[in-house]
Amino acid sequence: MQKKHSNKKISSEYYNRKDYELIINIINDNAKIIDLGCGTGDLLYLLKTRKNVECEGIDLSIKNIETCIKKGLNVFHGDIDEGLEGYNDQCFDFAIINFTVPFLKKPEFILNRISQISKNIIVTFENVGYFIKRIKILFKGTIVKNPFQDNSEKGLLNERFFTIKQFMQLLIKNKFNIIQEIYFCKKLKIPKWLNPNLFARYALFVIKK
Amino acid sequence: MAIIEFPSSQYFYYNSSFKLESGETLPKFTLAYETFGKLNSDKTNAILIFHALSGSAHVTRNEEEFKLDKGIKGWWENLVGPNKSFDTKKYFIICTNVIGSCYGSTGPSSINPKTSKFYALDFPIITIHDMVKAQKLLIEYLEIDQLLTVTGGSMGGMLALDWFLNYPETVKSIIPIATTLQSSPQNIAFNEVGRQAIIRDPNWNNGNYYSSEPPQFGLSIARMIGHITYLSDGLMRIKFGRKIQEVSNEANDNNFKFGQKFCVESYLNYKGLSFTKRFDANSYLYITKAIDYFDIYSDKKILDNLTNKQSIFKDKKSLILCFKSDWLYPISESKQIAKFFKKYNIRTTFCKIDSNYGHDAFLIEDYTQGKLIKCFLKNIET
User: Are residues B375 and A76, on separate chains, in Cβ contact within 8 Å?
Assistant: First the structure.
């Protein structure tokens, strides 16, 4: 579903991205943000045009970087940890890690580092504890691909998987405060009382230290 | 060695005394420069390009020369020209030579007005900032207040950085390529070997060789060493491998008979020798010394500028480019520039380009580099 994005205009396609919608609603106008693993800069561009944010991105792919430059975005070409160098403490209002957790080499270390430079962190990830995934693993023996981030073509394998439960344990261990938690599937939100670890496909956390 | 001139060059004559960072003064100076494209009526489409160590103001050819495929090729014409990344149909491109050089500007091979003899070693020590200060006078003379961008690779990147950090009010953006904030000990070391090769050539004669044989051997060895640092191990393997170049004419061998010559050897010999026909040895000494002294971190004026003019720097955009196989100005150096810029809230885009060409990549890689620059410039205008 996210295969072809037009570079110029915000197409209606974007509104199918529940994650974008949720993130845009969290971020306040004129905030200073950084998107870690910004891809082609779609989310940043949306935030820039709709919330007038001051934004920066980091991405590993030169093709993505080129698209970002076309959109007039400021981006760093490289690994997330190297891209985090040089920022003053708490210089961002929000750092966004949108579906890039599986690609972080040292997730705990990076989250702690990000909390130094950003007041809030928004993390979204796919919940491996989602019941359909559990069934697929049980019967097929493979984990279903995340439609928001299919990197199989690029030769990147999602490496680090979390269930919501595991992620929360990681937050507690690292003394993060949870400001907001949202659970959702492709189009709808899953209420907190409905055992999200089993019934939510995706999770979004706003955390801070 | 006479001054080397391009027919397309224009000259800026500054006839007052010009104070240098060292405290010494030049009684007057000349700067060779070239322009391409047209300056628009608002004077908002000017781009200033700086050349590297052995470069000149002749960055490209004009539109007509391109069409007819005539004229002397410029050093960056794969990126500068009609419909290129630095589009001469759209932008007014200025490329200026530096003081100290032998390409039409005042340098050690010029006549000292006080003695009516060649300057040679009487030429004062110059710095990157001195070069920039002279170029600033030219831009003022051209009555241009706003530059769309300043850019250059290698030493050209140093000049661009020095300009950008000293005169932020005159530029909208900067594109430093394959460069550094501070010459590394390794840079200085290679430069020193080059200088020693020149100085130890008996023909150098304390710099006084303008009426006799120039120190060709020294200068060619300096260039050979330089050339090794501009390439990469990977490229040398592909380009030369261990291939043997047959040399039938023994005279070309400098009477050195250890058998056959490897391709890489004859390539370097050729490059070294051809350089002596187009460059002045004393200029090589002065310009490499200027590169060695370059150090933004210890430049108090620039650091003060960065703290005092934060609101000005905040609106500036930068595109920092570097190349994966460049070991003379490695990626880590460009990353330091990005880090430094971020610290002062300059809008920074950093990009490392996959290339096998080593340091020379900034002159050769036009595909990715060209696209990135084009996209970046598009967003500067608006």
Answer: no
